[in-house]
Specification:
The chain has seven helices and eleven strands. The chain is an alpha+beta fold. Bound molecules: zinc ion (ZN).
Length: 288
């Protein structure tokens, strides 16, 4: 699933592509994509709306439309957005699908926004877990409230980080990093990378962490996320940039997706275990 850096990259690129465009019509063949509205209600409500801005909260894109509604889009595991202008280069983001650009819409296309200038935005989703919901300000606030402060924001302070760790002394550190209600936007990739950066095992019980380790981990979370945004994210899972290129973060990953390979910090080999059902990568020599 795309994490904060990947969705932020998509947000920036979509912002360049679609802001100012007016939606002439919408098409959908899968009612769950636009739930809780019916497809015809969705079509009626989104018609003639202009795209004012593309925002993001954690992993959710929030497209600000003219009028009282916003369009919230979650790509989940296999969602893909493709913007195709009437002429010129298409842009593509999310889960890569073969031949996706030649045959649009295809059997994985579950929502199309047709713009008045003849361009289109396609939402493809192989496993159909993704969604695009029309929500009002209350809905936008609910999405915001469901997620804790995000790395790189002024709300995500060392003080806050210490506070949430104190609340769950018996949890493993990675569990807290992944808990979206506590910290918004960190997923499996950047939890593992942050723990490596801080030289802390993702399995460490929180009450065993020293003050210095907590501070280091806090700094590492911000540093890792910031760097990943600069590199336009990772394609290690199912994610590519809007223009179809894999995320530039891949060569810089230290442990994620590198099990069995040589550690970049020592002569050891990167390990992978399951932690609460999630593949977890670390170096047993570099991390304590
Ligand atoms: Zn190592």
């Amino acid at each position: 699933m795309p994490e904060l850096p990947e969705v932020e990259t998509l947000r920036r690129e979509l912002n360049r592509a679609v802001v100012g465009k007016t939606i002439k019509s919408a098409e959908s063949n899968w009612y769950k994509t636009v739930k809780p509205l019916t497809i015809s209600e969705f079509q009626k409500k989104i018609k003639n709306k202009k795209i004012l801005n593309v925002n993001r909260r954690s992993k959710v894109l929030i497209v600000d439309l003219s009028g009282p509604l916003s369009l919230a889009i979650h790509l989940k595991m296999t969602g893909q957005l493709i913007y195709r202008p009437k002429s010129g280069k298409s842009v593509i983001g999310g889960h890569p699908q073969k031949g996706g650009l030649e045959n649009l819409p295809n059997k994985f296309t579950h929502l199309i926004l047709n713009f008045t200038d003849g361009s289109n935005l396609y939402f493809n989703d192989l496993r159909k877990f993704g969604w695009a919901r029309l929500i009002n300000d209350t809905g936008v606030a609910e999405i915001a409230e469901a997620h804790g402060p995000e790395p790189l924001t002024k709300e995500f302070t060392l003080q806050y980080f210490k506070l949430i760790l104190q609340k769950y002394p018996n949890r493993k550190i990675k569990q807290v990093l992944l808990d979206q209600k506590l910290i918004g936007g960190i997923g499996n990739i950047y939890a593992d990378e942050s723990c490596f950066c801080a030289r802390i095992m993702p399995t460490r019980i929180i009450k065993s962490l020293t003050v210095a380790e907590i501070k280091k981990l806090y700094q590492c979370v911000d540093r890792v996320i910031k760097f990943a945004i600069q590199k336009k994210g990772t394609s290690a899972d199912t994610y590519v940039q809007l223009d179809g290129k894999p995320g530039g973060m891949v060569p810089y990953l230290k442990v994620y997706g590198r099990e069995g390979e040589k550690c970049k910090g020592c002569a050891g080999i990167v390990s992978k275990i399951k932690l609460n059902g999630r593949g977890t990568h670390f170096c047993r020599f570099c991390q304590k």
